[in-house]
Amino acid sequence: MTLAAEGGLARELMMPWGVDIDLAEGAMAQPDRVLTRRASAMAGYYRDAAALDALIRAGDPVHYEVFEKTVPEAYGHLLLCVSKLYPGKVGDEYFFTKGHYHTVSGTAETYLCLRGQGLMLMKTASGLCEAAPMCRGRLVYVPPHWAHRSVNTGGEPLISLCVYPADAGHNYGDIESEGFPQRIVESQGKAVICT
Ligand code: F6R
Ligand code: ZN
């Protein structure tokens, strides 16, 4: 195995590689790993627990999927994945991802929206909140220290290409206990932010 000494760090030399991403469909060809979260994985996240239970009993549909290329989860590497959040509502709340801070909280992430319509909710531990529109061709930069959750307010899957430091890690626990102060609900046929 070849080792390269670089910036004082010895690491394994990876050969360059590429991946095909169908930009119109938002599909990654031959992902190494697929993470699937069904409605049942979202217990405790939505305000209307009865509506989530009904959805689970009605077949526990896939809520979202993450298609990944695997790289070492080490400093210097970039992890890239396609996040696909299906359309729908739990009660009046639009489907969303669990949301997380990065465990290494000083790491950023880019979300390039390939398809669909939605919002990226972001918040800091100190109480700042932002909601950034997501639509095809829009890139959202999630700076270090911002928790992030995507919300699908449209009628088709909300698909983004995400790139972030491979050693960032995911801290779901803080969001499980704190939630997000902003929720996106349908009111009179429109997506509105409620607090
Ligand atoms: C990675 C990232 C995305 C999400 C994906 C699913 O840091 O932000 O790839 O992991 O959108 O959302 P979560 O991880 O919150 O279930
Ligand atoms: Zn992230």
Characterize the structure shown:
The chain has 195 residues and is mainly β. Helix content is 8%, strand content 46%. It contains two helices and 19 strands. The protein is globular. The protein starts with a strand and ends with a strand. The mean pLDDT is 94. Fructose -6-phosphate binds next to strand 7, strand 15 and strand 16.
- Name the overall outline: globular
Helix content: under 10%
N-to-C series of helices and strands: EEEEEHEEEEEEEEEEEEHEE
Strand order of the largest sheet: 5-6-7-16-11-14
SS-derived structural category: mainly beta
Radius of gyration over C-alpha positions, nearest whole angstrom? 18 Å
Structure described in brief:
With 195 residues, the protein is mainly beta. The protein has two helices and 19 strands.
Per-chain topology:
Blueprint: E1 3-6, E2 9-12, E3 21-22, E4 27-28, E5 33-38, H1 49-57, E6 62-68, E7 78-85, E8 89-90, E9 93-94, E10 101-102, E11 109-115, E12 117-123, E13 129-135, E14 139-142, E15 147-152, E16 158-165, E17 170-171, H2 173-178, E18 183-187, E19 190-194
The chain binds fructose -6-phosphate and zinc ion.
Zinc ion is lined by residues 100, 102, 109, 148, 164.
